[in-house]
């Protein structure tokens, strides 16, 4: 019962309306993943809702994307509920001959994904009070790291990650060997002050739930995110795109497990963390 009330509180924080909202949008298709019911679109600004971004949108039925191809310029409807969103009603407007290779940066050798069991590099970012904090300062503790940014309005992406972290923080409230860290990759906007205004009241009653800012720490952000497998782009161009990654880091900075996307459940992650706490000493 407590957990259900807790989740409800977070949902109310993210959206004060239970009414589904519909938005008209225009963009260029970057990829279509039919097996995941996902279409990635580099979309223009959606008035009253979202700045330009490269975003993966859910679609409900495969017939919704029938006849669509990469580089198609489309208009579509974005439906946003309190806990989900999906794109539908696609109309092809034309073809775009140029498609940005937004993954190119992540192919550089300097920023390499770590394998499970490898130790992460030490990095330093800022907590919500503006104080420098390093990953190694939490050695001898487990660390669960997720990547978010405050300007993400899609309920089943960053806001969902925040909700799940909140459930985990509640589950592990009395543990002194686990830190939950949400790292913002929006180094152009999410200053410690912004993050404190946005999340301060949510995390204030938890000793082991923190939010870190990457403002002024771009190199360290790239190092941490790439070693875990989180990719983002378009920050400075105000056309943000990203994937979703969460990871469990061991007491000696070793990478123990990575969760991709937004489909993971807090109850399953809780079991995984408890199992690793028993195995890793």
Can you give a write-up of this model?
- The chain has helices at 2-14, 158-171, 192-203, 218-228, 266-279; strands at 21-33, 38-43, 53-58, 72-80, 85-95, 124-126, 132-134, 142-148, 178-184, 209-212, 232-233, 240-242, 245-249, 255-260.
- The chain is 23% helix and 30% strand.
- It has two domains: 17-95, Copper binding periplasmic protein CusF (OB fold (Dihydrolipoamide Acetyltransferase, E2P)); 108-279, Glutaredoxin.
- A hairpin with a 6-residue loop joins strand 11 and strand 12 (240-242).
- Helix 1 packs antiparallel against helix 2 (158-171) and helix 2 (158-171) packs across helix 5.
- Residues 1-18 have low confidence and may be disordered.
At a glance:
By secondary structure, the chain is of the alpha+beta class.
Rough outline: globular
Poorly predicted sequence stretches spanning 5 or more consecutive residues:
1-18
Our count of domains comes out at 2
Structural class: alpha+beta
Q: Indicate the multimeric state.
A: single chain
Q: Quickly give the CATH architecture of the largest domain.
A: 3-Layer(aba) Sandwich
- Rounded mean pLDDT score: 87
Q: From the 3D structure, determine the CATH topology of the largest domain.
A: Glutaredoxin
The proportion of strand residues reads: 25-35%
- Helix share of residues? 10-25%
Arrangement of strands in the largest sheet:
5-4-1-2-3-12-11
The H-and-E topology, N to C, reads as HEEEEEEEEHEHEHEEEEH
Major β-sheet profile: 7 strands, mixed
Taking all Cα atoms into account, the compactness measure Rg is 19 Å
Q: Can you tell me the CATH superfamily of the largest domain? A: Glutaredoxin
Helical stretch tally: 5
Distance between the termini: 33 Å
Beta strand count: 14
């Amino acid at each position: 019962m407590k957990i259900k009330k807790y989740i409800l509180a977070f949902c109310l924080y993210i959206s004060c309306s239970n009414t589904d909202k519909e938005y008209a949008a225009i963009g260029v298709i970057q990829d279509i993943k039919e097996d995941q019911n996902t279409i990635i679109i580099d979309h223009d600004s959606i008035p009253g809702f979202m700045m330009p971004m490269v975003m993966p949108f859910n679609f409900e039925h495969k017939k919704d994307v029938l006849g669509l191809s990469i580089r198609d310029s489309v208009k579509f409807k974005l439906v946003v509920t309190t806990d989900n969103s999906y794109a539908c009603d696609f109309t092809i407007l034309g073809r775009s001959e140029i498609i940005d290779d937004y993954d190119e940066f992540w192919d550089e050798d300097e920023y390499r994904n770590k394998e499970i069991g490898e130790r992460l590099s030490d990095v330093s970012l800022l907590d919500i009070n503006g104080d420098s904090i390093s990953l190694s300062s939490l050695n001898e503790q487990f660390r669960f790291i997720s990547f978010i940014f405050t300007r993400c309005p899609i309920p089943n992406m960053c806001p969902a990650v925040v909700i799940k972290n909140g459930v985990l923080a509640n589950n592990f409230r009395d543990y002194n060997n686990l830190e939950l860290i949400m790292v913002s990759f929006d180094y152009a906007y999410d200053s410690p002050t912004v993050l404190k205004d946005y999340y301060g009241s949510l995390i204030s009653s938890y000793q082991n739930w923190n939010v870190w800012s990457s403002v002024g720490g771009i190199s360290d952000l790239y190092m941490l995110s790439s070693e875990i497998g989180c990719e983002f782009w378009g920050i400075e161009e105000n056309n943000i795109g990203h994937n979703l990654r969460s990871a469990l880091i061991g007491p000696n900075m070793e990478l123990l497990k990575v969760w991709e996307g937004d489909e993971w459940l807090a109850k399953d992650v809780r079991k995984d963390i408890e199992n690793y706490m028993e195995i890793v000493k």
